[in-house]
């Protein structure tokens, strides 16, 4: 069974169809990448899947469950985590604090238990910290653990965004342009993280990315979209060679 099924998804803003009948499936364990010119609707598709936007039509099924009507925090709790094209971290908190916040949707204690600081809460607090420390190790962030986000280089903040998403123990991670603004060397590292997430963590990855060398290297399948509509699907090489895709890029 597919982990994610997106069926005929659509949304308009002020009469403009930003996403117009997009369907695709993401299989467990694959890296599936959306490519397309700026304004094609890629981030909007992410916002629809993570339930920040309400689709005007279509359906989203995750892990066999229809999530189209669920609120965003429920979807996060079911195991979909995401990063944002523009980094969304708490600048005046440390890396560790940001990751503990990212862990929040996994807390199963009730507010009054937290208030009373019952033993159950203390125990789970320890478990949360252990998991977050593992994520810090996995992404080589130990040197930045207690540093404030505001003082970190851009490339490190991009990795912290991924760490925050991983802290919620997702089954599916949505990465919106993970390599944008990164140097060649940082992009190379990003490719390794993505490969490790797939191979070592067994995660399923849905990504938006422009850097075609990164896309070719890590993606199992690629879907090209333009003006809200699907254009071509296949391997990175097949999609890049598709005349409709070439035309869409030349037209911008
Ligand atoms: P991409 O990520 O492919 O570059 P986006 O999904 O960000 O493109 O945007 C697709 C289209 O939807 C653009 O025309 C954009 O202006 C529009 N759009 C996205 N979000 C909103 C919003 N919240 N309000 C109005 N228009 C939006
Ligand atoms: Mg975008």
Automatic annotation (TrEMBL):
PANTHER family: ABC TRANSPORTER ATP-BINDING PROTEIN (PTHR45772:SF1), CONSERVED COMPONENT OF ABC TRANSPORTER FOR NATURAL AMINO ACIDS-RELATED (PTHR45772). One of its GO terms (molecular function) is ATP binding. Signal peptide: none annotated. SUPFAM superfamilies: P-loop containing nucleoside triphosphate hydrolases. Keywords: ATP-binding, Nucleotide-binding, Transport. Residues 4-252 form the ABC transporter domain. It comes from Alcanivorax jadensis T9. It holds the Pfam family BCA_ABC_TP_C. This is Branched-chain amino acid ABC transporter ATP-binding protein.
